[in-house]
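ESCALATION

Customer reports they have been waiting on this structure for their group meeting. Please prioritize. Original submission:
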Amino acid sequence: MSRPVVTAIMLNDLLRAGAEIRLSRGALLTPAAKDWLKEHAVPVTWEEPGRCEATLAAVLDPQLRELRALRAMLDRRGGLAEVIEPVGGPGGLVPAVRRLCGKIARGEVLKGVVFAADGAVPVCVANKHNRVRAALGTDLLAVEEACRQLGINVLVIEYDRQTTFQMRQMIDRLMRGPTSARPELAASLEVIEQGGGRADW
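Update from on-call: job pushed to the front of the queue and completed.
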């Protein structure tokens, strides 16, 4: 398994976003990243490297050059149960998202991530399914809040607006996050789901 590389630019992105800085003990720090850590007095949580136990399914088109690196990153990360490929161009994303949501609703996978050029439609499609709570991952703080408040189980990432490092951080937060909404929101979400939502794809 390859070791993640941490640069000063990545650390600056996390600091600007106000996110907690979590790094793997086996990470390779560039000289500039080492200098950055000495210069900035911010707490860093060093985590033991390990494979994720929770299963994850991903919707992505491996034919797109920019998504090949993401597929490799997910494979190295561990816990990837399945890749669902959109078929038939951009319109194929909706059926792929439906398949992902069906797998989550049936308990075949715990969580899912969708890589899309535009995240609005996949978020809308996913949130029409019972037992699926989806959010758009605009940044690490937004993902943390969605996990904490809603217990999201589907994360939609607009891949052309994020670095691979940022996407990995968001996916890690998704996988470590709770699988249920906060108690005060859970009842409201249950009422919404009783109004409809399909999980039969």
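Sent to customer with the following note: The mean pLDDT is 81.
Escalation resolved.
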